[in-house]
Each structure stands twice: as structure tokens, then as C-alpha cells.
Amino acid sequence: MTLVIRSVVLNSLEIYNLLVFIMLETLLHAILEQVDQPKKDLEKNLRALLNEAVEKLDLVSKQEIERQHHALHQANLRLKSLQEQVTLLEQQIHNKK
User: Which residue windows are coiled coil (predicted)?
Assistant: First the structure.
């Protein structure tokens, strides 16, 4: 009879410990959810602030920089060609004198 009672008591203790464990796990999960939500809100707010700040800056895309670089290069080539033409014309004028 004593063995049966102890078995029931042990089973009750095991059930109690299991319930306590489940309750603690549920509590921990709830706390972590509460902690995680402000983190998500903070991240969302920071992203919004950064996007707003970037929109206010006068930025251009990499493609636009490359396009401007190419245009500048072409202008420099044209300028060099025109300078050579001017030099030739000056030499022609100087030779006629």
C-alpha cells in the first residue's frame, strides 16, 4: 500500500513540476514577445527616420554619376579637339604674316 501511495505522490509531484515548467515557459514566451514588439517598433521608426533623412538629402544615383562622368569625358575630348583646331588656325594665321 505504501508503494502505491508513493507512486501516486511522485506522479503528482511530476505533474506539478510539469505544470510549473509549462507555466514558466508560457510566461517567458509572453515576456519575450513583449520585449520583441518594442524592438520591432523601434526598428520601424528608425527606418522611417532614415528614409526621411535620405529623401531630404540631395543625392543622385550611381547611374547618374556614371552618366555625368561620361558626359564630362566627352566634353573634355571635344574641348581638346577644339583647342587643337585653334592651335592649327593660329599657326596658319602666323604663317601668312
Answer: 32-92
